[in-house]
Amino acid sequence: MMLGIDFGTSNSAVAVVGDDGRLHSIPLDHGSPSMPTALFFSNETGQIFYGTAAMHAYLSGTDGRLMRSIKSLLGSSLMDEQTLVNGQLTSLFEVVVLFFKELKRRTEQHLGHAVPQAMLGRPVHFVDEDLGRDDLAQTTLGRAALAAGFEQVQFQLEPIAAAFDFERRVTRETTVLVVDIGGGTSDFTVVRVGPDRHAHADRASDLLATTGVHIGGTDFDRALHLRHVMPLLGLGHVGPSGREVPSSVFFNLSTWHLIQHTYGRKAVAHTASLRADYTDRGMHTRLMHVLEEHLGHQLLAATETAKIHCSQHASDAGIDLSGIEAGLGVPVSPEGMHDVLHTLLDSVVACARECVQAANVDRIDTIYLTGGSSALAPLQAALAQAFPGTAMESGDRFGSVAAGLAYGGSVAFASSKTTATAAGQGASQAAGRKTANA
Question: What is the pairing mode between strands 366-370 and 174-181?
Fold first, then answer.
């Protein structure tokens, strides 16, 4: 048995194909088959919270440190940097190991037995246009899984895994463009799927093209946050000298995995020193309140919530900023959201077009959407415009990749057993021939 593990930038999921051949999604987080990729280290009790509990602990005001979007740091030198957690220096690599240990523990607790093998998903590109860092990211992820207690780890591209999940529902041979929009990356693959193909261990001839770009849901959050929220704290504000307030703190506050850096003693002191750069000192007071009260994640979560509401309901939504100042908020409209995101979405759709062109096929039968950010209405509209007349289907946004990894893992596991059996039989036959010749 081999687990399929989708370690995502924003959310993670685990699935397995049982001995009965059926897919089993693991209820990781209070019955949910997916959990936020988040850890919270409580300064009050020393306890570590994971997933939804981590977000609740942070948003409830518990004193401690939230870590989210840690996948975004794979392939960077930051992985080996030491950071202070509960009074102890801990590397970010060790934080990833802790999360994998928790995934493994919850899975094995649910199944009632150990599962030492895992099929891990990976994006097409962890890092755009840097093969060295991309290889390092996969190696680091594999090392973390092994350090968490897995004995064997294999990898599969996330959009290919999603295609394997989609394949289980088709009744005829289909050429599909898989669109996997996660928290940190957008990945695409054109693949032939069909009911007679999914049992094959070697699918190389079915994979027609794969592309990816390092843009995802967290980038959408950041763009919206920079446009709508950060100006209230001073982004773009022109001070008495006629120059804009330095912007690095605003970009850090708008990036999930960098927010914590704004709370350090030196960072806070530097931001405090910017007061003279403000004409409107009230903006600076708001900014300092956010840093001193550690409200960065809360504000970015409010922007994310407004984005989701605006997309799902095609109506205006408000970003609640009352944590900064009573009654403070910013409206976001569907039109305004499209205006902010269109450049990013154009890059995502261009990558999808490149994938189809590289596949060199006459037509795409279906576009299969998966990943947490695939439900974004402006994205779906842009894809529909780019591929007119092509059917569009949505899978389990948070579970399709894990399911496909589990299916792929089950085939790989069965193939390895067959290979081992054949090797054993060959050795026995050779030994028999040697005995007969003696």
Answer: parallel
Helix (H, G, I), strand (E, B) or coil at 389: coil
Q: Nearest Cα to 184, choosing from 7, 64, 58?
A: 7
Closest CA relative to residue 25, chosen from 37, 12, 36, 38: 12
Give just the sign of the alpha carbon dihedral 360, 372, 221, 379.
positive
* 8 Å CB contact between 5 and 121: yes
The tokens describing 99, both together, are: 């999360």
- CA 115 and chain centroid, separation: 23
Radius of gyration from C-alpha coordinates of the chain: 24
H or E element that contains 194: none
- CA of residue 234 relative to chain centroid, distance: 30
Amino acid making up residue 48: I
- Which uninterrupted H or E stretch holds 40? strand 38-42
CA distance 324 to 126: 35
Q: Please list the alpha-helical segments (H only) found in 76-118.
A: 92-111
**Angle, alpha carbons 400-204-188 (nearest 5°):** 45
By CB atoms closer than 10 A (0-12, 13-18, 19+), residue 84 is: exposed
pLDDT in tens, the chain (438 residues): 899 999 999 999 999 998 888 999 999 999 999 999 999 999 888 899 999 999 999 888 888 888 988 898 898 888 888 877 877 888 999 999 999 999 999 999 999 999 999 999 999 888 877 889 999 999 999 999 999 999 999 999 998 899 889 988 889 999 999 999 998 899 999 999 988 877 676 777 888 999 999 999 999 999 999 999 999 999 999 999 999 999 999 999 999 889 988 998 999 999 999 999 999 999 999 999 999 999 999 999 999 999 999 998 999 999 999 999 999 999 999 999 999 999 999 999 999 999 999 999 988 999 999 988 999 999 999 999 999 999 999 988 889 999 999 998 888 777 665 444 444 444 333 334 333 333
Please give the model's pTM, rounded to 2 decimal places: 0.83
Domains with residue ranges and CATH for the chain: 3-158+394-421 (3.30.420.40), 218-335 (no CATH)
